[in-house]
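Interim report to the steering committee. The following record documents the input for Alpha-ketoacid dehydrogenase subunit beta (326 residues).
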Amino acid sequence: MAAEKMALAKAINESLRRALESDPKVLIMGEDVGKLGGVFRVTDGLYKDFGEERVIDTPLAESGIIGTAIGLALRGYRPVAEIQFDGFVFPAYDQIVTQLAKMHARSLGKVKLPVVVRIPYGGGIGAVEHHSESPEALFAHVAGLKIVSPSNASDAYWMLQQAIQSDDPVIFFEPKRRYWDKGEVNTEAIPGPLHKARVVREGTDLTLVAYGPMVKLCQEVAAAAAEEGKSLEVLDLRSVSPLDFDSIQASVEKTRRLVVVHEAPVFFGTGAEIAARITERCFYHLEAPVLRVGGYHAPYPPARLEETYLPDLDRVLDAVDRSLAY
C-alpha cells in the first residue's frame, strides 16, 4: 500500500531507510543514532538492518561529527549527520559556516558537499536547558546552506529524500514537538519542489505564514477565527532558505494583510526578513503593517515557563485582531 498513516518521526525513519536502501553511499551518523535508535527513536531499527558501517554511533563531539561528514562527502559519500538537540549544534557552527557552506564557492564549483544535518528543534516538550532552541535564522544568514523544516509527516518523508539527494548542504530542522503527530504519507507520490511554500488553508482576510512547529498552531488560529467570521489563509513556508517570496506575495496581494509566526525570537528573526521583503513587494497592496509573533529576546526559559515564552493561540489571534483593526 503506497499511502499509510504514520507519525512524523516514523516518516523520517522510513525516509532514512529508503535512502539507505537506494544508495550505498548514504550514511547516518550521530550521537546514539545506532544501537539506541536516537533519543527520540527516529533512527530505530536502522543499525540492526544496515550495520555499524552505515549507521554510525559517534562520540559526543558535534564539531567532529560535522568535520567527519565533510570529509566523507569529499570522498563521494552522502552523510546524514544528526545533532541530538538544537542547542548542541553550536560547537559545530564553525565547521558548518566556514567549511560546509563555503567549499562549493571556494572551489569555484568543482567540489560539492552533499551533507544533510538533521536537527530536532524548538520547544513544547518540557525539556531542560539547551534542548529547545530555534537557531534557524543563524544558519539562514549564511550563504551556501539550504534550510528546510517540515510541518507534517508527508513533508518530513519527502523533503528528507530531496535533501539527501541534493548536492548542496541542507540543514534539516525537525520540529520535535510534532514528532508524534500523525498524517498520511504516500511513498509513491511525486513530491513538489523542496523550496516551494504551500497554502494549507485558503482565506481572504489575512495571511498567516509559518513553518515547522507553528503551522499546526496557525491552522488552529484560522479555525478559531472562522468562528468569528474571519477568513484566514495559512501558508506553510517549508523552506527558510531559500524563501518562497513569490508565494507569500501572491497570498498577500489577495488578503492584503500578513502575520508571520515562528518559535524563534522575533528580534532579527526570519519574520523580519519576510516583513521587509513583503513591504517592498506589496507596499501598495498592504492595508496594515506586517506583524510578527514569536519568542522573546531572552534565553529560552525553564520548562515550567516555556508555554509563556512560546507563541500560542491567544497571542496569534491578538496579532490578527490588531492587523484587521487598521
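The longest strand covers residues 258-265. The committee is asked to note this result when reviewing the revised timeline.
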